[in-house]
Amino acid sequence: MKDAVPGVGGEGRSWPTAEPGFWRQVVEQLSTALMVVDPAGRIHAVNPAAERLLGRAAAAMRGKDAHELLHRDTDGGTLLREQCPLLQVLTEGAPARGEGDSYLRGDGRLVTISWSASPLTDGGSFKGMAVLFTDITGDRSARRERAAYTSALEDLNERLTLVAEITDVLGQTLETDEALARLGRLLVPRLADWAAVDLRTGSGQVHRVTVAGPAGRAAGLEGGRERLPESGEADRSPLVRVLSGGDPVLRNEQDERDEQDQQDEAETAVPPGSPLAAVHSDFLRTVHATSAITVPLGARRQITGALTLVRTDPLHPFDTEDLEVVSDIGRRVGLVIDNARRFGRQRAVAEAMQRNLLAPLPQPGRLQLAARYQPAPAGSQVGGDWYDAFELKDGSLALVIGDVVGHDLTAAAGMAQLHGILRSLAWDHPGEPGAVVDRLDNAMPAITTVPMATLVLARVEGHPHTGPWTLRWTSAGHPPPLLLTPGGHAQYLEAGQGLVLGAPLDTGVGRPNATQPLPLGSTLLLYTDGLIEIPGSDLDTGLDRLRRHALTLAQAPLDTLCDQLLARMPPGSTDDVALLAVRLPAL
User: Is the pTM of this model over 0.70?
Assistant: First the structure.
């Protein structure tokens, strides 16, 4: 008998809803696995798709407890009944679905399934559940692969970011100690639990200069010095091999055990390690290393030292990708250290040149003189600041403060050239300071390498013991002298200003000169711009600051005044400072 169902499938079509065989055929042809369980959880029926998915015959499953027969944990172990979501659904008698359960096939393999359960009732009586389930093992593997791929990309991005950050941060300093301190803070704990840096010294020794750990810098593990073995000496230490030009080394606990077993089986004794190898082994034992990487700093032709990174978690050892990243970091750090050393040598030469050119100050009668030269703070470049004071033929006192444009050894060399030429011109051709500086300006392009410079040339005229004293000066674009007079007055001497040395001048127009009486008990300060430049502020602010500090120190001894002015320099200054002070006797 066929019942027509109006509105379904179009007019003139009907469905055999009353034939039991039809619904059996639907179930059997269903491509989705179907299992019917009774209220106790026993399997009542399965369709062919379920047989194929589970690798079991329907007859072998009928009447069996579904949970006991099929449900397993991800390792294949039996689950407690309280952990079975399908049994909970049977208890509640409500529709539910789940994903990620593991079912045991007849061949012993596990399949991961996604399932949907619907209650079966007859006249309001609960008869069990119909469970549709599909194999998602492949989908889950794909998700794991995607997750692993995503994790690998994130890890690679983190490593590349770390390398870029190290390159950027270390490039901001030319001081070796500061660069290595920054390196430790970047590597621990982002890439390792411990980091140690050993540097080769000119005496053939290796110096452990820095160790960083979970609590920051570990000074107690630093400072060791040992000789690097000769190339012919046998030494299997990773540190010795790397410092001797070998490849980067990755060592894990298992590697150590395998190597020790090989040594125990060998009939010949292994030569003992060098003292340097012993120091490195002691370090690894002290920090409880389970995995370590040692890479050279620099390139093979120029190895300045070695970087060792340590991990202490046996479940998280270094791998070959870590080795590549750390090797890249080592090459970059080696370049930074090499540059820092080159800069340090250049800086030492320039500072020595500057200090050697700063001749001892004269003692002209009752006039007091004091001077200071302070190199730029650590990490900055050398400048061309200088001061000078010397007596002239006519008995007057010449004062000079100058600054050559540039911040390198060339600037320091240019300062030396100007220093010598100006002394010669001032001694050989006494007269107005402006005329002397004009002659210096004319000679500068021909006999010096200085492109531009500023200076003040002054003469203190008067009997060195009795006075009275007069200041005569000219300025070539330099900050004005500061005159402190009794009674708490401070005056910048802004007259006598001309163009900087090296700037084009109008032919026939000489440099200006200025004159100022110097009262008894007054103090004259000549200085370079490093004393008044405040980062982020204008020049007037720096001049006001110097005036205030100088007034508070006006009655202090001259040496104390100079020392305190330098001590009160603006924070963040990166320039050299030269300071020359003259004090007249009090009444």
Answer: no
